[in-house]
Amino acid sequence: MDNDDNIDNWIKFLDPENLKGNLMFSSLYIATFEAFKDYVIEEVKFFFNTGFRDGQYTFNPKYNTHVVSKDKSIVKATLLWLKDMEAIDAKDIETYDVLRQYRNKLSHELMTLLFEGLPEELPEKFAQLIQLRVKVEKWWILNIEMPTNPDFDSDKKINEDDIVTSSQMFNKLFMDMLSGEEETASYYKNEFKKKFNR
User: What is the mean pLDDT of residues 174-191?
Assistant: First the structure.
């Protein structure tokens, strides 16, 4: 890195808005990645739940033989089970591995990245992360939740595109709040305050 580049990096680093934006986006990526891991692990684990006894949940032994045994990493094992169930494919698992590398880079090299600049492709990777979670969520709703819900009319045809998942809603919420447009960013807070007279 030559001296001019170093000076430019310092100028960007010392710009409060630039620093805040990079910190927020890095934190959002890491938090979203961790939430995805927790989501897939817990959803699949509790698919094998058999009840609650002596102060703890009990699980069908098949959870260990059908899921846990697939890989030393519980999240990777869970993704492999989802692949077997045709919720995702091999390319999705490859995408997850790449997304995990970005998460690790942000976690372990954040100060360097804040100074030198976040990876240009990070917004694209964030979009891929959201898409992967939405894909799993929609499959889960259509293939697990709806068929096991006695209140659901099984004769009713549901289009996957008509399903709006929780992560899609939260992602819109976050993006709107971080948009930088005052009216859009404050909309949810103002509506919430109106609803509860605060």
Answer: 70
135 pLDDT more than 90: yes
CB atoms within 10 A of CB 22: 20
Number of domain units in the chain: 1
pLDDT band, residue 163 (cuts 50/70/90): confident
Inside any domain, residue 71: yes
Query: What distance in Å separates the CA atoms of residue 47 and residue 167, rounded to the nearest whole number?
Result: 20
Q: Considering the domain boundaries, does residue 192 fall inside one? A: no
- Residue 197 covered by a domain: no
The predicted model scores a pTM of: 0.81
Asked if residue 115 belongs to a domain, the reply is yes
Domain that holds residue 101: 3-163
Cα separation, 161 vs 56, whole angstroms: 38
